Please model this.
Amino acid sequence: MTSSLPAREIRVPVFFLLLLLVVLPALLVAGALLLGRRRKRTSAESDSDSLGFVGGVLNALFTVVLAFYVVFSWQTGDDIEKAATAEANALTDAHWQMSAAPEPAASTIRTLLTQYAARVADHEWPALDAGRADPGTDAILTSLRAEVIGLPADTELQKAAREQATQDVRLIDENHRERVDQATDDQFFTVILLIGTILGALLMVVFPLLVGISPTTANIASMALLTAVLGCTVFMSLELLHPLHGAFGADPDAFRIALESLGVPAPTGT
Model:
C-alpha cells in the first residue's frame, strides 16, 4: 500500500454485529447449560489431560489455517491496489509527457488517458468485482497504444516524449493485466483455506460442549466471549474473500486521484 491512498474503509452491517455479539453467544449459553446439566461429572477418573491435548491441537490447527488464509486473501487485494497505483502513476506521467508532443496527437492521447482512468473507476472496477473483464477498457488501451506509437518524433524533445510515453503505456498495460488476472482468479486455494477456517471455528466452539463443559458462570462467560470473537473472525474472513468490495475491499481511488491531479472531475460511481 502507498501512503498517498486513503485507508480502506471498514463497512460492517449492524445486523451482523447483533448476530455475532448477541445471538450466537446467547445460543452458546443455552447449549452450555443444557449439555452441562446432562453430563455426569466424575472427580476421581478424569480425562481432562487428554481432552486438553485435543483442544490444544484443534486450537493450533485453527490458528495456522486462519493465518494462511489472511495472508493469501489480503495479498490479493494488496496486489490489486499496488498494480492500480502503478497504473495510475504511469497514466499521469504519460499525460504530462504530451506537453512536448505536437498537436493534434497530444490532445487525442490526453483524451484517451482521461477516458481510460474514468472507464476503470466507473465501469471496469464493478465488472471485475463481478468476475469479468471490461472490453471497453481494453479497447481504449488499444487505441492509446496505437496513438502513442504513431507520435511524430521530428525533434529530440518529441522523440524523448514518445519514448517515455511508450514506456508509460507499457506499464499501464502490464499493471492492468496483473490487476485483471488477480481480480478474476478463482482463488481455489484461498477458498479451501476459508472452508478450513470456518470448520475450525465451529470445532473451537462445539468441542467444549461435546466433552461436557461445566455450566459455571465463568465457563459460560468464557464460551460466550469465545463464540463472539470467533464469529467476528469468520465474518471478517468472508469479507476478505472479496478484494474489490466489502469491509476490506480495494477502491479505484488511485484513478480518481489521477483524474483530479489532471484537472478532470472524477467519476462518483463504482
